[in-house]
Amino acid sequence: MPEVLKAPLVLEFPFTRSLGPVQSAFLTGLRERVVLGVRTSDARTLVPPVEYDPVTAEELRDLVEVAPTGTVTTWAWNHAPRRGQPLDTPFAWALVRLDGADTALLHALDAPGPDTVRTGMRVRIRWAEERTGAITDIACFEPYDGAAPRLTGHDGHFDNAVTGIVAPARLDYTYSPGRAQSAYIDALAGHRTVGERCPACRKVYVPPRGACPTCGVATAEQVEVGPRGTVTTFCIVNIKAKNLDIEVPYVYAHIALDGADLALHGRIGGIPYDRVRMGLRVEPVWTEGARYPDHYRPTGEPDAQYETYKELL
Amino acid sequence: MSKEPVAVVGIGQTKHVAARRDVSIAGLVREAARRALADAELTWADIDAVVIGKAPDFFEGVMMPELYLADALGAVGKPMLRVHTAGSVGGSTALVAANLVAARVHGTVLTLAFEKQSESNAMWGLSLPIPFQQPLLAGAGGFFAPHVRAYMRRSGAPDTIGSLVAYKDRRNALKNPCAHLHEHDITLEKVQASPMLWDPIRYSETCPSSDGACAMVLTDRAGAARAPRPPAWMLGGAMRSEPTLFAGKDFVSPRAGRDCAADVYRQAGIADPRRDIDAVEMYVPFSWYEPMWLENLGFAAEGEGWKLTESGVTELDGDLPVNMSGGVLSTNPIGASGMIRFAEAALQVRGQAGEHQVDGARRVLGHAYGGGSQFFSMWLVGSAPPHS
Ligand SMILES: [Zn+2]
């Protein structure tokens, strides 16, 4: 049995966010080195601020400035900072209640080691040199024993307020297609298409999934299908898809390989796009080093009768 | 013990648009929820539980957004739960909320669904580059277009039907102030002249990408008796699923859709949907799905659905109006799209649909589906309570 395949899978995307009035003021404030909280109906000040009262659900818009100094309410040591975290040397994740606030803000605390950090210790914000209106405008917190500085008395109204941010997301996986698909991919390397037959309904799945989705039983019996097949249905693609280097128009088709009980998808070539039809008989065309057929081309056989493939659309 | 009858007493939607840059996600859902509460003349305190739905987290990249939305929806200290069934989610979410009332777990439930597509990347979320797998060879429409061609082959429908649906839905949208697309200068010629993207699907026969939210207040018999406006009564509701791909899958008329509709009709005592149902609001992301679903839902025999479209039966003033709101073709905040269908059905039987009201609509079907046709959810609502 061939080895089960594995490969890294990294997904990254820069999502955009509209901030709404409260987060807009909060992040713009950070850009200007002003920390804003929001006042609730029971006169508490929440930092970071929220748009709606957690107790009454009422809309909150009364922004108030709090100090850049505060007290650690709890913390955890981070021995091995990961990519994208605020500091690249070990630091404490700390909840800091800023002076004037009733709730605590999560951020990094730069300290020499875990024995120098304690709940109740006094800290202040270390501002980032370049600030854009993002939580990273606070570079981190640092130990600080001095007095709280005077507040600017800011009311939360700014010129040129930040209204949106970009929030990059990244997920890092090890992906494995599993036993059945690994065997399928292994056979493709020899230009053979091998599916699996369900022991209950006898249907041949290509690509195989290792189980039949209708019967709910494992599949193991390997069945070679193709290489020829029938175009069961198709569309003509007239717009270029991102990341696809195929000249339009081209035909994207469902192809039932001979012996398979469901169609797979492929591109049709070797024939003008407007002459492709349901029932066209095709065979794969391989290019050097490719894992999958580059496209399928007409075999020259007579078209398949509709009755023979109407269950395979 | 029989089920508690479920009534819709409040409906709220945002004005659906391409991008709501002025509000956060919280601000967006809040707007729909406030409007639903105002319609029901209720406050946050009257709500016993919140049931929320949206499309996959990966679309906007906010993991479990329901947690952060609890404040905005007055859900703190109350049960709040999230439903997750791809494009059908707005419908499933409403049904989960309805079941909580029907089972007498809660008296009054706020249900809500949303999507902020301007901050999302649905195409990316749906076509991740999986190692060893063949890259997808066509965009979103490329998935649907071969099924449309299969339908045309099977039914012998003329290739003009898709344009007729799009022309009708876009005109209906002009009567719906919440609809995203308001194409005031729409003509059938313009639809027919729009570019063929994934032949046989034209640009004008595809849905837009929208930001929007939809909310409903569902309540029991006692709650309905206190309602300031006529309620819509749930007469039947069901969900079905099936795998995305399997040997024998019928993409043109999926069995899960047929079974789901049959279950709803059985609950509601509908013998002949074409005769007993006055209008349908169905999930039609590409225009050709109107005739396909008409058959799948039992309004026409197999291969005959396009004849209802062609003969004008599905027009707003026809015998069986379809997609009175303008449909998904005119408004598509994905996660909310199913609930908007359910809400439109309820608006119709409440007589609250304004300019797109179907006169005398007494029983209306709301339909949602999603994913690769693997999730279906539907409800039938009526102007009179169910017999019990
Ligand atoms: Zn089987």
What does this protein look like?
The complex is a heterodimer of chains A (313) and B (388). Chain A is mainly beta. Chain A folds into two domains: 7-170, no CATH class; 180-309, no CATH class. Chain A has helices spanning 20-31, 178-188, 306-309, and strands spanning 7-18, 35-39, 45-46, 63-66, 69-78, 91-98, 105-109, 122-127, 138-143, 164-175, 193-197, 204-205, 221-225, 229-237, 250-257, 264-268, 281-285, 295-298. In chain A, the strands form five sheets. In chain A, strands 7-6-5-8-9 form a five-stranded antiparallel sheet, with no helix packed on it. Chain A is elongated. The relative contact order of chain A is 0.13. In chain B, helix 3 (89-102) packs across helix 13. In chain B, strand 2 (49-54), helix 2 (65-69) and strand 3 (80-83) form a beta-alpha-beta unit. With 388 residues, chain B is an alpha/beta fold. The radius of gyration of chain B is 19 Å and the shape is globular. In chain B, strands 3-2-4-7-1-8-11-10-9 form a nine-stranded mixed sheet. Chain B has a domain at 7-120 and 208-226: Peroxisomal Thiolase, Chain A, domain 1. The mean pLDDT of chain B is 95. Classes of the chains: A mainly beta (313), B alpha/beta (388). Chains A and B meet through strand 1, helix 1, strand 10, strand 12 and strand 14 of A and helix 1, helix 5 and strand 5 of B. Strand 14 (229-237) of chain A pairs antiparallel with strand 5 (196-199) of chain B, so a sheet runs across the interface.
